[in-house]
Amino acid sequence: MMDKATYLKKLEAEVEQAQAKLADWKAKAKSMAIDGSIEVEKAAEQAAAKAKEVTKESAEKAEGIYDKAVAEAEELYDSLKAKMKDLGDAGEDVWDDVKDGVENQWNKFSTSMKNLADRFTS
Fold it and tell me: What range does the domain containing 45 cover?
């Protein structure tokens, strides 16, 4: 059997070892937390870069679609203006025939403008 003093010294040594282990575990946990933060930051940066790339591609695609739609509407407008001029220049004998062409062109232009408006407001 151990005497009291020896027992206390042994117990103190074991407590010191436990404290050393605890300090080591705290240091490892802190290091792991920092490593985890670094990994999270890297993942966030990669996700942000990918989102930026996808957004840029989408914006370029949308710009192309809108540019094409605007160009088509402008062509229809120019054609409508030409038909309206023809209508103004038409004699009374062909006025009804020319008017039908103007109305047809107006319907195409109106539909194009509505579709374009829908794209811009969506």
Answer: 4-121
